Amino acid sequence: MASSLTRASADPSAEKTFFGHPRGLATLFMTEMWERFSYYGMRALLVYYLVSGGADAATGSQGGGLAMTAATTTAIYSVYVSMVYLMAMPGGWFGDRVWGARKTVAIAGFVIMAGHLSLALPGQAMFFVGLILVAAGSGLLKANISTMVGHLYDGPEDPRRDGGFTLFYVGINLGAFVAPLVVGTVGKEHNWHLGFALAALGMGLGLTQFLLGTKHLSPKSSVVPNPLSAQERKAVLTKLVFAVLGVAVFYGAVVALGAYTLNWALVPLTLAGLFIPIAVLARIKRDKDLSGAEQSKMTAYIFFFIAAAVFWMIYDQGGSTLSLFADDKTAGTMFGFDFSATWYQSLNPLFVMALAPVFAWLWLWLARKNQEPNTIVKFAMGLVLIGASFFVFIVPMAMATGDTKVSPMWLVSIYMIQTIGELCVSPVGLSVTTKMAPQKYASQMMGVWFLAVTAGDCITSLLSIGGVDLNGTWVIGFQAAAAVVAGLAVYAYRKKVQVLMGDVH
Questions:
Q1: Of 166, 138, 230, 186, which Cα lies nearest the Cα of 25?
Q2: CA dist., res. 337 & res. 259, Å (int)
Q3: Residue 6: CB partners within 8 Å, gap ≥ 6?
Q4: 144-201 tens-digit pLDDT
Q5: Could you say which DSSP state residue 120 is in?
Q6: How far from chain centre, in Å, is Cα 6?
Q7: How far apart are CA 415 and CA 335, in angstroms?
Q8: How close are the terminal C-alpha atoms of the chain, in Å?
Q9: Which residues of 257-276 are buried (b: 16+ CB within 10 A; e: fewer)?
């Protein structure tokens, strides 16, 4: 076996492969790995940079940040993450109707890199420009790079297809694991803007890999599946120009009147992140072209969507509420070894890589015994687990009074419980979305699934904007109880939901 990741097959004239998969998978693997390195590296720094220099920063932490409160920081973080997933829908639209998947990913790489470079420059204005660019670029890339992985194979029945997506998933988590250790440590412990610059370098490496390896991708990735007609293109551009002008005039007036505050940006984005998922689901549900069976499945899917939104509402606080607790109330030393609070962000991808194969084996083993839980039960398990993680969180919160700092093992345990819950919800949700999607919306439903993340994060943002202290014990307990109750409700109504799902199990 060759020592490199790519190797030739038994036939000397055959094209090189990537662990037995098409050579193009190596290109997409490395592109996504470096993109995730840049994304999760920046995300590990985000909340710390926002509170740095302010009253809610940890004692002795690096200055030079934006000196915001914990509540504002959580709102900004939640809106940012929600916008990344919200942008996946227009990102998919651009790939399908304007540029094609390959060109869209290339443009997305440049946009993301520009965003990280903007973050590397001092100043609040450049910071928010950077966030907008990274969110827009990530949405463009996320919606199209997975599509290109599928293009490498001979249709859904290709026996290599599932293994290819598994390898691709490893690339995602590998980048997410390394980033907080490198970008997080440099940025938080030494220089914020150098950390953001490292994130830009990561995306630059990914983009270079993509451009050099694009010849190995499928020709289908360059095709625009459903190109806009000249009339449609003109209509879209007209609407876009009017929308931009409308926003510019409105916010220009607000600024001119001296009334502008950060909430003028956060509140509309948060409300949009809540209303857009509702509007999209309502539009699909009201479509008279759907058959009776498809209507029934969409009714069931709404149950899964709401459950997923509750799950992500808590889960994504791993990068905000838990991160702030890690910096301020958790010991930064273990077994005599000092480490940065950003390292906690590496726990989730580490646990995913360690536990995902175990869960895959467990579901198969239970299936052979005819005891595998169905999709509804797995969702219920995920909700109960995410709630349980916050019940556990109450204990170290109660212990960390005054200058007392708790053991890092508390957060390690919380992140592990959350990852187990994620493995019950995330891959199952992706699978059930493809199975229950109406034929008319087959290519759009994956974007709809991502909207559950948007909705969950926007709930968190709305609570923060409304003045709710998400670092308070009673709020943590309330969220934990809400998730557990939601999980038990899903389980209690499993038979009714199963009837709505029809032949999907």
A1: 166
A2: 49
A3: 16, 17, 18, 23, 26
A4: 898 898 889 887 677 887 788 878 888 999 999 999 999 999 999 999 999 999 999 9
A5: T
A6: 29
A7: 20
A8: 41
A9: eeeeeeeeebbebbebbbeb
